[in-house]
Structure formats: structure tokens, C-alpha cells
Amino acid sequence: MRPILRTLSGTAAALTALAANAALEAGEWQIASIDGAATLGEARIVFAPDGTFSGSTGCNRFRGSGVVDGGALVIDSPPVTTLMACPDAALTAQDDRIVALFAGRTNLAFDPFADRVTLTRGDTTLTLVPAGTAAAEPPGPADPLPPDPILPDPSLPGPLSLADAPFVTVFGVSDHLNIHAAPGTASEVVAKAPSGTLFRNKGCQTGEAHDWCNIVSLDASGTEGWAAADYLEPAAAATRAGAGVFDRIGSLACTDGGAATKCDAGVAYDPDGTTVVAVFRPDGVQRLFTFVDGSFAFADTSQAGGGFDATAARAGDVTVVTIEGERYDIPDDLVSGQ
């Protein structure tokens, strides 16, 4: 049996203490079951010695950090996640439950005889077991997860068609767009959405007067319905990144006038070569950096306190972006998605 924990007591400590004092050893764990039912796909989580964790729900990837306090894993901010459409309802439900559990305070319990850990929050319990093959060294905070493709065909040139777009936004309406229970204006209106609202797109079909797309709200309501395709357009990378909908997540080196640290990052890609990198500083401030064909274009510095200009320079395979006393080292592989 692997040397995992002996006690869950003690004061708050970074997840580094998870390996020594708590139930989880730094390294990779398989999410074996949810409420006793076996998980679908490759659901897993990796705990790093510095307090960060990352993993896969079996559909989407997530990344965050937390502390251990009195037998619980406490996560102040929801993890950064990709938000791709899962292939079926069962995997979508699993995805939602796993992500929801890694927010707030989650109870930890360890079974030393079965060599497993349970994480419980509300009515959801995850059971973790050690991954089949432990890595020689646990991954560090900068080890990125492989990217999730956004396009059915990544080689597709030019703008993404509405039918292929996994996310769409409402546009061209003066008031609200009606969301119907079924394709057709005669169907019941189940919701209304103003211009700019972001939806997950489950597919489109041809109609007599309009083409229709089956869309799902990204808020907690999960409202689903059909909207006229005339008033929908593929969601651009900037829109998705601003809403926290990413094609890839990871971390990068950053500095805010003091010691160097790590910042969480999410990336959204457009098929025209535009990449938007959202960086989340430890103090909660978010920065958005836009690249075109791999080269830095501009930064959204609206939260910089005075709209300071950003400058960029190359250092090997990294673009170094500075905003006053802030520095962000953005690696090429994060920008390119390779």
C-alpha cells in the first residue's frame, strides 16, 4: 500500500501538506466512482506539491488550487475549466457534478485498508484511488494538460460555420431572441436572450422559414431550446475567453511587482489564427492577451487601474508581456495549441 496519510487533523495548510498530513498523496489519482457508480471515460485528478490540482472529468479539463483545513479541502475560487460539449447526457451530468464538487469546502475521508479517498460535498461523493502507474515525480504546476480540440476538423480553413460552432452568441436583435421548446415559431417560448448572450450549440437543422439551432444556456438554469439561426453567430475566441469558456487550460509564470509566481491561464482559439489567453492572477485580477498567427497583438488592460499600455518581447519560445510592474511569460505552445 502506498504511504498516504495518517491524520486529517491540524491547522490550514497548503495542499503540499496533503502528501504528508492529509488523505491525498501528491500525484495522480483516478476518480473511480460517483456515489458508488463507476465513472465514465478517463476521469482523473493530479495533486501537485505546491497546492494546485488539475484533472479531467472524463469530458472537460479543470485546474485550481486549495488548502486543507480540519479534514476538508477548501477551494476559495471555482476551478478554471474547459467547457466543451460532452458526447452524451450521462457524461454531461458526470462533468457537472465533478466540477461542482471542487468549489467551496469539500470533506475528506481516507480508508487506509482499501487505499482510497472519498471527497464529499452536499449529496455528491467522489471515490479516488491511486492511478495504476505512479509517476516518478508528481507533475509540477506548469505541466499543462493536453489541449482539447474545438473544431470537428482542426484543418478547416476560414471562419467556423454556425453548424460546426460548439458555442454561439446572440446578435442582431433589438430586444430579445425567443428560445423555443422546438424548432418553429409556433412552439412555446421557454426563454428570451439579449444580444451577446453565449450558448452551447448542440446542432442546427434546416426549417421552412428559418434554420434552427438547438442551444443550451451556460448559466445555472441549463435552459435548452431552439433559436432561429439568423440571429446566432459562432462565438469568437475573445467572447468565449471573456466568459471563461476555454479550449485549453494551464498555468504560466507571472510577476506583479514582487516575487515570481504561477498564474492560472485559459486559452480560446479561432480557426482564423486568433488566440486569446486569459490569465488569472492570485489576487483575482484577470488579464486578456490576444495573439494573431502566433504573434502578440494587444492586451485588455481595463483592470490595470489606469489603462496602461502593454509591451511584448521575445525570450526563446516565450512571449514576455509587461504591463507596468506586471510580467507574464506566455509560452508558444500555449498560444499555438500544439
Task: Describe the protein.
With about 350 residues, the protein is mainly beta. The protein folds into 3 domains: about 15-130, Lipocalin (Beta Barrel), CATH 2.40.128; about 165-235, Roll (SH3 type barrels); about 245-335. Helices cover about 10% and strands about 45% of the residues. The chain contains 4 helices and 27 strands. The protein has helices at about 15-20, 90-100, 235-240, 330-335; strands at about 15, 25-35, 35-40, 45, 50-55, 60-65, 65-70, 70-75, 80, 105-110, 115-120, 125-130, 165-170, 175-180, 190-195, 200-205, 210-215, 225-230, 230-235, 250-255, 260-270, 275-280, 285-290, 295-300, 310-315, 320-325, 325-330. Strands 1, 2, 3, 4, 5, 6, 7, 8, 9, 10, 11 and 12 form a 12-stranded antiparallel beta sheet that branches. The longest helix is centred in the N-terminal third of the chain and has 13 residues, at about 90-100. Residues about 1-25 and about 135-160 have low confidence and may be disordered.
Average predicted confidence as pLDDT: 79
Tell me the span between the first and last alpha carbons. 38 Å
Please state the CA-atom Rg, rounded to the nearest Å: 21 Å
Q: Fraction of residues in helices?
A: under 10%
Largest sheet: 12 strands, antiparallel
Shape summary: flat
> By helix and strand content, what is the structural category?
mainly beta
The CATH class label of the largest domain is: Mainly Beta
Assigned CATH architecture of the largest domain = Beta Barrel
The tally of helices reads 4
Note the beta-strand portion.
35-45%
Give the beta-strand count: 27
